[in-house]
Amino acid sequence: MKTVKILILSFGMIVAVTACGKQAKVHDTTSKKEVLSTEEQTMESTTEYETETEERTDEVTEKVTENQESETISEDEFSYSTMKNLEFSFLSGAGGWSTELYIKEDGSFHGIYHDSEMGDVGEQNPNGTMIYCEFRGKFGALTKVNERTYKTTIDSLSYTHKPGTKEIIDGVRYEYSEVYGLEKAEDIIFYLPGTKTKNLPEEYLSWVRDALYDYKTEKAAKKLDFIGLYNEKQGEGFSSCTLASYMENEIQWVEDEAKELNKKLEGYTMSQRELNQTSGQIYELWDGLLNRQWKRLKEMLPESEMNALKKEQKKWIRKKEKKLKKIEKENGGGTITPLEQNLAAAEMTEKRVRKLLKYFK
Fold first, then answer.
1. Other C-beta atoms lying within 10 Å of the C-beta of residue 25
2. Residue 230 pairs with which residues in a beta bridge?
3. Which pLDDT band, with edges at 50, 70 and 90, does 85 fall under?
4. 179 neighbors 113 (Cβ within 8 angstroms)
5. Are 101 and 86 a contacting pair, CB within 8 Å?
6. Contacts with 300 (C-beta within 8 Å, 6 or more apart), sequence order
7. DSSP, res 330
8. DSSP letter at 169?
9. Distance, CA of 275 to CA of 264 (rounded, Å)
């Protein structure tokens, strides 16, 4: 298999919350790419002397910060284990497609790429089309190139489904592809926290602008606060965040959606059937998140720890089922039973989701 080079720039701080934990506005990066500006405008009343002084001060401050970072982070502290609890994301920004990449302590990696085209239908695929890819691989040993650069290779890259093949599943046509973001890669670069944005390629910045932009202050960061991955040949860039912050953001999204549905329940304008259906949607939100958590945990945790967690999970499921049967018995199977069961199941599942969050930290 073709060897792929990886370049890794050195860094200041490793753990950081990025776009995964932000409520970012939607941008479509498939349109003309925009470049983040890292320069701040000077007030008109500021004199030329004052401006130059401020710029020199900023330069000194940045140099001091860089020196402090190099003193607190040694070369030996950088390894694949640094990225074991991170999720790398390459996405459109409009929710149409994305690639998620995870790296383990031994340098192995895995992930998925997916793109939905629900309007692309036919007799055999009335539910649309999904471009999909599950991939695995392994990086080689890290080699230091210079003070802020490390190099490695992709020793292997394989796919669960052969790229170019298709199949129909539940009315959806799955078209299997190569991994978007790593395809045809030669040099791939990891930009690490502390890297100045003014030194980054404009194409890379165009992919991670939401990760760099703070929509509360309406300012873009001058330095990365996350590890970024850049496929230099293809001009494709990933941002990253901790899995904990990613899951916290997922929880927040589900919580917000559930609150809106709960408002409908409290309006007392629905029929019993509608109440049952709406409460079911609340439960499905939390149950869906629990399933997404579980899928990631199976990839992350050592086998022994996962086996212990499976036993705990089975115990929790039995407890939940017992609770639901009790509700049915108390209501005698009446029409209100689904409503109360759904809300009870949602409450228990939400608590379970929050408890499992500790495994991502």
1. 9
2. 189, 237
3. confident
4. yes
5. no
6. 84, 85, 102, 243, 359, 360
7. H
8. E
9. 8
Split at pLDDT 50, 70, 90, the class of 95 is low
Computed over every residue of the chain, the mean pLDDT equals 79
Other Cβ atoms within 10 Å of 163 Cβ, number: 13
Q: Which helix (H) or strand (E) holds 115?
A: strand 108-117
The alpha carbon of residue 186 and the mean position of all alpha carbons in its chain are separated, in whole angstroms, by 24
- Quickly count: other Cβ atoms within 10 Å of residue 83's Cβ: 24
pLDDT score recorded for residue 320: 97
Amino acid at 295: K
pLDDT in tens, 291-303: 999 988 987 788 8
Q: Residue 150 in contact with residue 194, Cβ under 8 Å?
A: no
Quick check: 152 and 198 in contact, CB under 8 A? Answer: no
- Give the DSSP per-residue string, 183-211: TT-SEEEEE-TT-BGGGS-HHHHHHSHHH
Please classify residue 196 by burial: count the beta carbons closer than 10 Å to its beta carbon, then call 0-12 exposed, 13-18 middle and 19+ buried: middle
CA angle 191, 182, 239 (to 5 degrees): 35
Full DSSP string of 126-163? TT-EEEEEEEEEEE---EEEETTEEEEEEEEEEESS-T
The answer on pLDDT for 288 being more than 60 is yes
223: left (phi over 0), alpha (psi -120 to 50) or beta: beta
- The answer to whether residue 353 scores a pLDDT higher than 90 is yes
pTM: 0.65
